[in-house]
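Entry 12.
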Amino acid sequence: QVQLVESGGGLVQAGDSLRLSCLPSTHTFTSYSMAWFRQFPEKEREFVAAIRWVGGSPYYADSLQGRFTMSRDNAENTVYLQMSSLKPEDTAVYYCAASIQIRPTTSTDIDYWGQGTQVTVSS
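Predicted 3D structure (tokens):
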């Protein structure tokens, strides 16, 4: 079974920080890129950040302006999204994703999706 499991979502106040985690169920993703997307109600999933398991640096959606940081721990087979200076506009379901593409940036690049974790930012 191939599965991505996200965790770490919750309810926070504007200006707070939150770290999301993603754990693949197998060790078959080392040749893949890992990514984070988010989805607002009634809208398409949009790109947040991505990184390759091996030989790459993280890259981000321009609109995030450095507030989010993606990282990976190959030994623990886990990827993270550190979210800081959260705004109510960041409220969305956040999805972990895996792609065979070298540089995924759209939902059509994704081969596997996690179940999503809700992030709610209050003001």
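Annotation: Residues 33 and 103 are 7 Å apart (CA to CA). The chain has a mean pLDDT of 92.
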